[in-house]
Amino acid sequence: MELATTLEYAENDPRKAVEEIVRLEKAGLDAVWVAEAYGRDNRVTDN
Length: 47
Known about the structure:
The chain has a domain at 4-34. 28% of the residues lie in helices and 17% in strands. It contains one helix and two strands. The longest helix is centred in the middle third of the chain and has 13 residues, at 14-26.
């Protein structure tokens, strides 16, 4: 079995994200997924 988790991409400090990933890898995690950055700030229009 492989373990994975998600990582918030909205973090303003990439160093903190790297530190978190290193900590998770040391704990035995196999993969970290990050959502694509597009779409969060797009306007939504009603059609």
